[in-house]
Design brief:
The complex is a heterodimer of chains A (492) and B (493). Chain A is mainly α and 492 residues long. In chain A, 74% of the residues lie in helices and 3% in strands. Chain A contains 24 helices and 2 strands. In chain A, helix 8 packs antiparallel against helix 10 and helix 15 runs antiparallel to helix 21. The radius of gyration of chain A is 21 Å and the shape is globular. Chain A starts with a helix and ends in a 6-residue tail after the last helix. A two-stranded antiparallel sheet of chain B has the order 1-2. Chain B starts with 9 loop residues before the first helix and ends with a helix. In chain B, a hairpin with a 4-residue loop joins strand 1 and strand 2. The radius of gyration of chain B is 21 Å and the shape is globular. Chain B is mainly alpha-helical. The chains are: A mainly alpha (492), B mainly alpha (493). At the A-B interface, helix 6, helix 7 and helix 8 of A face helix 17, helix 18 and helix 20 of B.
Chain lengths: 492, 493
């Protein structure tokens, strides 16, 4: 059993056990077991980065076993520079989510923890699958725990949000399933993603495939105009659900572009770049403006996530080292930063039970330690140099300038809008005079909350000050991907 | 060929004798001891399953009774499946019927006889044998639906089932008689040969095919011949609904293969169109109507219509442009779909029955509210069934849908790929009402009501049923290979 299998199945098995035996009478024990399981699942992913050969082209830690002979489906796992950090991010965020839920979730604790552990394993599976069908199974299976997380522990409109989340995402992925089957047909009966990368395809086929994949991944990212499920899902989901959604699940879609759309249909991808860039710019500018007028903090951060993901897709479709590399850095740092922003909102919500910006004011007076973290993450969200948020955005803008000056010009408005909506929220929530009695009675962070925010702050600083480990690992794979995408796959 | 070859018929003969014996013995069993009858029936079924399995394992194709019946791996495999489905049905049903004054010997005897009818259909090699098996099964089922004769809904359902069922049999018989008129033979392989030689009146032939397909459509319960399905599913006692919804579907599938594929493959272009049309209509009608249902049994009935429609997509894509190359793939996908459907349906109706209590049927979707709190394991199992019916991995239902879609896409024809897209879009609609059941069980708070007590062996069986759906969702390869093997060998002969 290889390392990747362990990284996938350990949290799933432990989570299922927790589901099976955990009772609310022993909530304390369940929490500690969940934490142990999450930490253990994170520890087993560390060798993936430590043992990663940054110079090697191609997949590493490969496992390849026959699985369903009838369709020639193989249990084929492997990672390259594009995916390795996401596996660590997933396992890391799961620890944070377990800690964040500690005293907050009191109802059906085992189910909550179990769902997140299983979800974590499934998402690691998405990032490491090299078989199309295996990828699809992990990709779809993640819907089930998230549906339950939103529906059981969510807010007042949780049912609506859970259905919208599930059906929206399912619509996209079902079209992708047809695309996978089409590729299976065209490749002569194989679900091997790497074989698909080499498969020559005529332009019409490429275009159809590109848009089928686009249906699945653009909903997941989400790109404008199919983003409307995300604000609902974020607002209604419990804090942990929002964190995982923003930090990892959105990246599943972006990762799909890198693994499927671009290398399998490179000609169609190059042909459609205008469309992708336009949609990305709309997300950056328009959604940025939408974020500005939000009254609900979670909604604001949700829209900010969409705008940031617009940057990611922009980076992909300018087809340059800086663009794709920057986009991946942006994905990782957004994972930390947006996760942290949702945790901050969670900290406030647990005390005041409101997410309305107008319910707060002057929080810094009563919660100084917390406000320091919150302001720091807000700065990272608007891309302050020295934080993780800066590196990715800067790289993408630099790439965009080389591609087309005006596109870069429009994209860089994010620095203005991002700063505007984030800082304006910070001003209204944290600064000023104490707004009401509830704020006056706030207690500052306890050790648990301090610990989880500090962990994330360290990660954000690390990415901002010393991004080399991240860029080094992905460099070879990004170059290889771009070299591949530049070649035409049209049959001669 | 006057070879009778009785030995090949051992499972059927045994089942018939066992049914008669149980009917006799039951006369001397008092009501309190009725579980003896249950035990005997289960034992008889177990022996039948083993006998079937031995013949399946031997892998031979044997003709018997002067070519009236054929024992091939496909029939035997479906026989094993149908017998197992019956065993599970009886195990789920026993506590339910015991509570409802239906725990009579008739229930068991009729069940065994309906299974006999199913077995006869599975091994039919002759139009009349098909019809005879169909009638043995149907008449037993009509009587079973009407078993609670003081219940107005059940009686109404029985009437409806009988009238429409008889009409369908009439259709089928009329079609078969035309077939006889066109080809001059009742033996399925000979029909095939005669058509292949091209010495038939095509007009009469195609006319007959229309009637046969309509009859089969009734029996499979697909639109536009689906009217009886919701009423009968809802009206019949749940134990009988379960019976109707499981093994007989396997039989309907088998005679569809026997009649259309083994007999009429040369006119596939004609009946495939009809099947595909029925498939799409069923998907639309079943899925849209299911959304509006508040009764769980009725919802599952509409879902069954849609599921059968999905399966028909595969049956309708075996012959492409006169080429029979994709046939093995297509029909084995359909067979795997049927197996999946039966396993999942057994579980979901089984759960409805286990939740029912004396004087309370628990058949509204709202009755499941908060099941995750009251009965976490039951809710978990039902969640698995619902996701399986919706075709979400990692459950068995996903591979069933995948196999069908793969069949459609592999044809490489734009029209079939468009069908696949239609099918996936409609399964999105389907996901909604399956998810709603999960929502009611998991998200909603329990309403005050009697707490369900322990379920005993039937509850454990339900857990096992759910586990199988999940395990086959992770490792579906074995069953797929078996289905494929059986179908390929049936086609080869």
């Amino acid at each position: 059993m290889g390392l990747l299998s362990v990284a996938i199945w350990l949290p799933i098995v432990l989570g299922s056990l927790l589901l099976a035996v955990g009772r609310d009478e022993h909530a304390g024990a369940v929490r500690w077991l969940a934490l142990a399981a999450a930490v253990l699942s994170f520890l087993v992913t560390i060798p993936l980065v430590v043992g990663f050969d940054t110079a090697a082209v191609g997949m590493q830690f490969v496992e390849n076993l026959p699985w369903i002979d009838r369709f020639n489906v193989r249990y084929h796992l492997g990672i390259d520079g594009l995916s390795v950090w996401f596996i660590l991010l997933t396992a890391f965020i799961t620890i944070i989510v377990v800690i964040a839920a500690w005293e907050i979730i009191e109802d059906r604790v085992a189910m909550y923890m179990g769902a997140f552990l299983i979800l974590s394993g499934l998402m690691v599976g998405v990032f490491s699958a090299l078989d199309g069908l295996l990828f699809y199974i992990f990709f779809e299976a993640t819907l089930i725990p998230m549906y339950i997380i939103i529906g059981v522990w969510g807010g007042p409109r949780r049912v609506y949000a859970a259905f919208k989340f599930f059906l929206y995402t399912l619509l996209g992925s079902l079209l992708m399933l047809v695309a996978l089957l089409y590729l299976y047909l065209k490749s002569g009966g194989s679900f091997d993603i790497q074989a698909w990368h080499q498969l020559p395809l005529p332009m019409t086929a490429q275009t159809l495939l590109f848009f089928a994949f686009f249906a699945a991944f653009s909903v997941k990212v989400p790109m404008w105009p199919v983003h409307t499920w995300l604000p609902d899902a974020h607002v209604e989901a419990p804090t942990g659900g929002s964190v995982v959604l923003a930090a990892i699940m959105l990246k599943l879609g972006a990762y799909g572009f890198l693994r499927f759309s671009m290398p399998i249909a490179p000609d169609a991808a190059r042909e459609s770049d205008w469309l992708m860039i336009s949609l990305s710019l709309i997300a950056v500018v328009y959604i940025g403006l939408v974020a500005l007028v939000q009254q609900d903090m979670k909604k604001l951060v949700a829209y900010s996530s969409i705008a940031h993901m617009g940057f990611v897709t922009l980076g992909f479709f300018i087809f340059s080292d800086l663009g794709v590399g920057g986009a991946i850095i942006q994905m990782i740092s957004h994972g930390f930063v947006s996760g942290a922003m949702f945790l901050c909102i969670g900290v406030l919500y647990d005390r005041v039970h409101s997410r309305e910006i107008s319910a707060y004011g002057g929080v810094v007076n009563t919660m100084p330690r917390f406000a320091a973290f919150a302001v720091f993450f807000a700065m990272a969200n608007c891309g302050l140099p020295g934080t993780g948020g800066f590196v990715g955005e800067w790289m993408v803008i630099l790439g965009a300038v080389k591609y087309d000056f005006w596109i870069a010009g429009v994209a860089s408005t994010t620095l203005v809008f991002g700063a505007a909506y984030t800082l304006w929220m910070v001003k209204r929530v944290y600064f000023g005079d104490i707004a009401n009695e509830q704020v006056r009675e706030l207690t500052d962070l306890n050790d648990r909350e301090f610990f989880m925010l500090a962990l994330l702050a360290l990660a954000v600083l690390w990415m901002g000050l010393y991004p080399k480990p991240f860029t080094d690992v992905m460099q070879t794979s990004v170059t290889e991907l771009l070299r591949h995408v530049a070649l035409s796959k049209l049959p001669a | 060929m006057t070879l009778l070859n009785w030995a090949a018929l051992t499972p059927e003969i045994f089942l018939l004798l066992a049914a008669c014996a149980i009917a006799l013995v039951d006369l001397f069993v008092v009501d309190e001891r009725r579980h003896y009858t249950h035990g005997m029936s289960q034992a008889a079924l177990a022996v039948t399953a083993v006998l079937h399995f031995q013949q399946f394992d031997a892998g031979l194709t044997i003709y018997a009774l002067g070519n009236m019946v054929v024992m091939d791996p496909m029939g035997r495999l479906l026989g094993v499946m149908a017998t197992l489905a019956m065993m599970i049905t009886l195990a789920y049903a026993q506590p339910y019927i015991a509570d409802r004054d239906m725990h009579k010997g008739e229930f068991y005897v009729l069940t065994l006889l309906s299974l006999l009818g199913i077995h006869v259909m599975l091994s039919a090699n002759d139009f009349l044998v098909v019809y005879m098996g169909l009638e043995i099964m149907s008449l037993s089922l009509y009587a079973l639906v009407a078993l609670r004769r003081d219940d107005a809904t059940a009686t109404e359902a029985a009437m409806k089932y009988f009238v429409l069922g008889a009409l369908a049999s009439g259709f089928l018989l009329y079609g078969l008689s035309m077939m006889y008129g066109a080809t001059g033979t009742l033996e399925i392989p000979k029909v095939f040969e005669v058509i292949a030689q091209g010495r038939v009146n095509t007009q009469v032939l195609v006319f007959g095919v229309v009637f046969i397909v309509a009859g089969l459509g009734f029996k499979l319960g697909v639109a536009p011949f689906h009217m009886w399905v919701p009423d009968v599913y809802q009206g019949a006692p749940t134990a009988v609904t379960l019976l109707i919804a499981s093994a007989p579907k396997l039989a309907a599938f088998a005679i569809t293969i026997r009649l259309l594929v083994e007999g009429l493959l040369k006119v596939a272009a004609d009946w495939q169109q009809m099947l595909l049309f029925m498939a799409v209509v069923s998907l639309v009608v079943g899925n849209l109507a299911a959304i509006a249902q508040t009764n769980l049994k009725r919802m599952l009935a509409y879902s069954a219509i849609a599921q059968m429609g999905f399966m028909l997509l595969s049956l309708g894509s075996g012959v492409i442009g006169g080429e029979t190359v994709p046939a093995g793939n297509a029909y084995s996908s359909a067979m795997f779909y049927m197996a999946t459907y039966v396993l999942t349906t057994l579980g979901s109706f089984g759960l409805v029955m286990l939740l029912a209590r004396d004087g309370f049927e628990s058949e509204q979707i709202a009755d499941l509210a908060g099941l995750a709190r009251r009965q976490p394991w039951m809710a978990a199992v039902m969640t698995v069934f619902m996701f399986s019916l919706a075709g979400i991995p990692p459950t068995m239902g996903f591979y069933a849908k995948l196999a069908v879609l793969q069949t459609l896409v592999t044809t490489g024809q734009a029209a079939y790929i468009a069908l696949a897209v239609v099918a996936v879009l409609l399964s999105l609609v389907a996901a909604f009402y399956y998810l709603r059941v999960v929502k009611v069980m998991v998200f909603d708070e329990p309403v005050q009501g009697p707490i369900v007590s322990a379920q005993g062996p039937a509850g454990l069986l339900l857990m096992a049923n759910g586990a199988v759906v999940l395990i086959l969702g992770v490792l579906p390869g074995g069953l797929m290979a078996v289905c494929r093997d059986a179908v390929v060998r049936a086609l080869a002969t």
